[in-house]
Model the fold of this input.
Amino acid sequence: MGQFSWLYSDTNKQLVDNKEADAYLLVPEPYQEEYGKYILETCYDGYGHFGNYDVYELVALWNRKNMPLNTSAVKEPELSDFDGLLDFEKEELRKKGANDNDIEKADKEEKNKCYEIAKERYHRESQMLCDFKADIPDEIMKQKYGKDYLRIIGIDIACEDEDNFALKFPIKITSVEMSYSSANPSKSDPYQGWEESEDEEECW
Done:
C-alpha cells in the first residue's frame, strides 16, 4: 500500500499526511486498560501509524473474537472476474504468426492463470483469518503467514469502508478527545491524505 488516510469522524475533514495536527485514534472500551482511552498522533505519517502502534494491527487485535471471515478483500474469486490477454499482447502474438485459435487459447490460459493465483491467495488469507480467530499463538502465525500477518489481517477486514463499518470495533479517528462509543467509524480519505493546499507546516 502507498500512503493512505481517513476522514475525522467528528468533522468529516481530512487527516492530512505529514502535517502537524492532533488525531485521536479512539480505543474500544474493553481495551482501554491496555491502551488508554485514545492514542494521540500529532503528525500522521500516511502509513497507518498512531503513536507507537499500527492502526491495522490494532483493529485486527480488537476484533479477534468477532473476526469476519468474508470481506471485500477476502472473497472467493470467480473466473469471470478476470481478463485474459491485453489487446497489445494479442497484437504481438499476431505479429509473431499466431492465428485466432492460438490467440484464443493463450487468452484462456492467461485468464486461468490469474484466476488460480487469486484462488490460492483467497484460500491462504481465509485460513489465516480462521487461525487468528482460533487464537493460534503469535509465533506460529508468524511462521505460517509471515511477520506482517497482523497488519495484513487488519487491512483485509478494515481497509474498505463497508468492512470497517461492519466490525464490532471499527477504526474511529477524531480531531478531539471523544468516547469511543459516542463516535462514528471513520471513512477512508478518497485523496489518501494528500491535499492541494500546502499552507500548513510539514513535520518531516
